Recover the amino acids of this structure.
């Protein structure tokens, strides 16, 4: 009669792999939301810029009753435009960063399109302001106010 030792059971380790798909999707959605919010914020800034620009009197044909008040008003409008344009540039950088954080290009196409339209409009405003540069300088408004 032979005696055999009971066999020891091998200990098996179980490794659990957790999927990060949900986390990645959440992060991507957050990034897309941030991008969309940035584009919306940029559109609001453009609206502010357009309102200010409309209030500014850059027309040479119009003669102001109080020329000094007109000059001061134009200068204030130009300074406010400059601040808004700087904010828009900061938003542009933020949107570019957010876009780089995800690889879902299709999700950004609409917001990116709006962003490009906004910057085209800002560029048009800059051109109009530069075209009126001589008129403004003749009215002794600081050139620094319109140099972007």
């Amino acid at each position: 009669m032979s005696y055999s030792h009971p066999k020891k059971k091998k200990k098996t380790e179980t490794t659990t792999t957790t999927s990060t798909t949900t986390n990645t999707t959440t992060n991507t959605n957050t990034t897309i939301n941030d991008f969309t919010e940035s584009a919306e914020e940029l559109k609001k800034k453009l609206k502010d810029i357009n309102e200010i620009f409309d209030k500014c009197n850059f027309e040479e044909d119009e003669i102001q009753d109080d020329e000094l008040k007109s000059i001061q008003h134009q200068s204030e409008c130009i300074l406010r435009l400059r601040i808004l344009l700087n904010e828009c540039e900061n938003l542009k950088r933020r949107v570019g960063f957010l876009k780089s954080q995800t690889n879902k290009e299709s999700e950004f196409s609409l917001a990116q399109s709006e962003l490009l339209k906004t910057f085209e409009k800002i560029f048009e405003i800059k051109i109009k302001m530069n075209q009126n540069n001589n008129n403004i300088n003749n009215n002794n408004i600081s050139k620094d106010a319109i140099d972007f």
The CA atoms of residues 62 and 88 lie 31 Å apart. The chain has one domain: 35-145. DSSP finds four helices and no strands in the chain.
